Amino acid sequence: MMSEGLNLQSPPVKVLAAQLQQCYRDCDGLWLLARKEYGRPALAVPLVWMQGTILTVDQDGKAVKMQDESGSFTVQGADKVPKGRPCLSAGKYVMVMGLVLSCSPEPILRAVKMTALTDSVLHRNMWGLEVEDLHRNLP
């Protein structure tokens, strides 16, 4: 697992599924997010913040398939994390913080936290803009 030895004191990086699919590993095995389109250097993304709609939940609640505005991704370990409100059902819009396990062909995260955001349309509507703003301004 990539979590051993990582400093997870820094905040998670907000990303979309399509951005995470374009990540690559450096010589130390860390996932790096290329940000050339924003004129910024690559950014290590051991811990990410993603938002999306739950498509499916496996029978034991361990894995969740989600989709954001750019593509789909999988969240593992959903049964072992704190959840703000019950959120593990298809159709719910949720936030997930997770460790990046894989980026291609589809991102896979190990959940650290999940929270339902379904009650606020603002969260869904602003998410893409929040992510873009972050990458335009984060050095």
Structural overview:
16% of the residues lie in helices and 40% in strands. The chain has 2 helices and 9 strands; from the N terminus they run E-H-E-E-E-E-E-E-E-E-H. The protein has helices spanning 17-21, 121-137, and strands at residues 13-14, 24-25, 31-35, 40-44, 47-57, 63-68, 71-76, 93-102, 108-116. It has a 5-stranded mixed β-barrel with strand order 5-6-7-9-8. It has a 3-stranded antiparallel β-sheet with strand order 2-3-4, with no helix packed on it. Strand 3 (31-35) and strand 4 (40-44) form a beta hairpin. The longest helix is centred in the C-terminal third of the chain and has 17 residues, at 121-137. It starts with 12 loop residues before the first strand and ends with a helix. This is RecQ-mediated genome instability protein 2. One of its GO terms (molecular function) is DNA binding.
